[in-house]
Amino acid sequence: MGWRQTVIGQILDIKDAFEAADGGPGAGELQREVTWVLDDVIAAWREQEQQQWQPCCWQQLELELQAAGRRGRPTGDWQVLLRAPLQQLQQLWRLRLQERVPFQYLIHTAHWRDLVLSVGPGILCPRPETEAMVDLAAAAIAANPARAAAPWADLGTGSGAIAIGTARLLQSMQQDPQQAGRQRKQQQQGVQQPQVWAVDLSPTAVAYAAANAEACGVQDMLQVLRGSWFEPLQQQQQQQQQQQQQRGWLGGVLSNPPYIPAVQMQGLQAEVGQHEPWSALDGGPEEGLDSLQVICSGAADMLLPGGFLALETAGSEQAPLVQQLLQEQQAGGAAAFKDVRVHEDCYGVPRFVSATRN
Amino acid sequence: MQEVAERKLAEAHSRYQALQDTIADTSPASEAYQRLMKESAALLPLSEGYQQLQRLQKEAQGLAELASGEGDSELAALAEEELAGLQQQVRAAAAGTAGDSELAALAEEELAGLQQQVAELRESLLLALLPPDSSEDANVVLELRASVGGEWVVGFAEDLLDMYRSFAGEQGWRFEVLESKSGDSGGIKSATALISGPGAFGQLRWESGVHRVTMVPSNSQGKMQTGTTVVIALPEASEVEVSIADTDLRIETCRASGKGGQHVNTTDSAVRVVHLPTGIAVSCQNERSQGQNRSQALRVLRAKLYEMELQKHAREQSAQRKAAAGNANTNERIRSYNYQDGRVVDHRVGLNINIDVPRFMEGGRLGEVIAAVKLAHQQQLLQEMLAEG
């Protein structure tokens, strides 16, 4: 196996320090990506042709290599067993460095919270900021456990990240006997429903979200619907309301809808602007609030009294606007929401807006 | 010295018995139950050892009496009974009594054997008397920092990290590098590793301190140079032992500028966690998601806070006990590695190994050095403990 290939790949990385031009990855970031690829791809090694393959991971092997180098031991004959053909690796790096294809697309994987999600072209790679959405949901349920007894919805689910994270949260709570009791009661009333509804307009997203749900073990609790925002849920709601005659039926609504103002779409980092789906990014003209607006307007009808709403926004400019939208939202002649708050993300940007249905 | 030791064993034994009574009265579902069971388990070997010691001593004493007895036929019969397993009869001692010299010699031999057993049992019980250190089995957060010396020390620091990686491999421990800063032309300036496996801290705690290196670096035109690398080994604390309130933390992430969120696709999720009350900061950058980097950083933070707790606790003990407790004085030069002369010296026990330094680091020898340091420390602790009575 061409061992040198990796060395060449690494040398190429270093020249990319100037990629910082459009806010893209720096050399350090790219080098780390190479390390991760090698972590994934190297299965075993041996010092000489005649020896047995020894299983290893790249981290250990790298240290061996360096140690050997320092002691002047020859490593030219060392061989590595790869899980994928070398050409594939080479192609992968060509795409990464020349075309700025997102790393996650090349390895078809995004690591997010404690999940490993499958992603590809047509799917927005879940962002580290968005990890906090599940924490917000957890806090909301802790504040009002009844919320966990009703279904939740993730609008614009994409890879399914938020929906799956929430489903796992609810799943872990099912260990709690109190919750299990409530659910048994619901089942007795003939209300058979998954705990989490994931909605997306794109058929690609629907496919990925369903596959990821299965891979993460929550397929029994999560159902993916194809459609625009609340529309596919309204059908479900009609079924529910016939039986329960309640105002609203969801315990929580979460969403990371496209929120980038249209004018900013052209100036995006290449990985984003040239490869990720614009339908998941473009928030429309002016402030980019188109999708957020739809969700804010429709949430009041969908949520049970006391239900929780959390939205991700573009940050400092948008969050206060969304906050205002929610505060002004009316239902039946009164304010639809209370306790409308802005939360900072892990980078200190005021990004999330949450509210409670009155 | 022996009396003090025996008294302590007796105390442990009676504490154990009292515990059994308390446990019998405690509900298994209560919190106290777990604690009591743990304490009981720790005392069990001492208690059993003590009882065995008593038995052996009695046997030995019995035999000794019989060996020096007056040849009373009644006693001889009793001796026969007692030594049934050994099938011996004991006769009167040297001064003018008739008897079977062969049997007497055999009895003497058995007596010597028993006394030997007693002595060995005593020794192991003494060691067991040392306060149990629950951190012996803890995982280790190992920090390495190239310290004094020129640019070249970073190579030595890297060698040391290598050495620990090999050692971990030998012991069957898991070795993960959480973070490392490279030197400009190779080597590492500093690194943090997480080493997981049974007994990890028990051994690696003895690596804390200053490691001194003497060598002729490749860029120094043949001049011999001296440098140091500081190693700190901390026990990893569980969430129960050190709980950190979310409000005590500030999570910092290095986002240069820009909007973040949907605007950015990055695989960089490096995290820096700052513990506000103490100001301790830990960063982690090598995991694949932000959540994972954060949990690793918290693991390291917990270990550091735990170490602070231990240090605080140690300060409250006697000065001597503190030194012996093995809480690392990181200014102490503990070991020298001389590449020129091919020698590794551990200064704490005066252990001098003539060996090619790279060979030492490759593996096989570190374990014996650590064992020597550990033994010396245990003996010192024992002496102090018994001196205090």
UniProtKB/TrEMBL annotation, chain A:
PROSITE patterns: N6_MTASE (PS00092). GO terms for biological process: methylation. Pfam families: UPF0020 (PF01170). Coiled coil: none annotated. One of its GO terms (cellular component) is tRNA methyltransferase complex. Residues 157-260 form the Ribosomal RNA large subunit methyltransferase K/L-like methyltransferase domain. GO terms for molecular function: nucleic acid binding; protein methyltransferase activity. InterPro entries: DNA_methylase_N6_adenine_CS, HemK-like, RF_glutamine_MTase_cyano, RlmKL-like_Mtase, SAM-dependent_MTases_sf. Keywords: Methyltransferase, S-adenosyl-L-methionine, Transferase. PANTHER family: PTHR47441, RELEASE FACTOR GLUTAMINE METHYLTRANSFERASE (PTHR47441:SF3). This is Ribosomal RNA large subunit methyltransferase K/L-like methyltransferase domain-containing protein.
Automatic annotation (TrEMBL), chain B:
Gene3D superfamilies: 3.30.160.20, 3.30.70.1660, 6.10.140.1950. PROSITE patterns: RF_PROK_I (PS00745). Residues 255-271 form the Prokaryotic-type class I peptide chain release factors domain. Pfam families: PCRF, RF-1. Residues 76-124 form a coiled coil. InterPro entries: PCRF, Pep_chain_release_fac_I, Pep_chain_release_fac_I_sf, Prokaryotic/Mito_RF. It comes from the Eukaryota. Keywords: Coiled coil, Methylation, Protein biosynthesis. Belongs to the prokaryotic/mitochondrial release factor family. This is Prokaryotic-type class I peptide chain release factors domain-containing protein.
